[in-house]
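Quick note —
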Amino acid sequence: MNKILKRTLSIFASLLFIAGVALVLYQPVSVELGKLEAKSIIEEFDKTYNDVNNKNNKKNHNNKPQSSQASVMNVDVKALKNASIKYNNSLLDNQGTVNTSDYTKAALNLGKYGVTNGVFGYISAPAINMSLPIYLGANNSLMSIGAAHMCNTSLPVNMDDTNCCIAGHTGYRGRVFFDNLCQMSVGDEIKVKNYWQTVSYTVIDTKIITDKQSEDFYIKKGKKLLTLMTCVSNNKGGFDRFLVICEKK
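Predicted structure written out below.
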């Protein structure tokens, strides 16, 4: 009986040890796997981007009509660009009156333009070693896999009178998204790449707001803004919003 009990306790102790090791390793392993996944998505995006631009350059060189179709994904870049510009223009007369509490919807149906993985582009911040794919719609599903564009704010296109607002989680179990945003400083560079261009911004301010404030997400006349948002504790059992505000000079 004693032998059986000792053996049982030994097995139980071994299982507890294995479970403890697995628990300790879960976070770092999951984070690294998440980085690899994001890297793979971005590499696929860059392949599509390069394929489109190389094809268009070749067509221009041969004086033939341009083709905006990509072979990696059959992306109609010209139509997507036009739709993005139209969407941004549609916000100009509505800023301050539209329901900006509903950021979760997709600004565009990317499937209409041949984007099958839901990725509009990606954001990179060298100062904090961050590169994340951008999805359209700041909902729980999309924010669990990358950064998310907030509907009713400008899409990341190089246009005047725009304020592109992108949200990302902090403290999401097993992944690192906007966790290091608070380490960014005025003067740091952030780049956003879509299917036809890269837009470079410079950090001009950081601030904390409540979840009831939204004025920082509105368009400012004559400005090209990028506003990044993540949640931070308000030390009262709730969460405020930490913002990194950037501008294209």
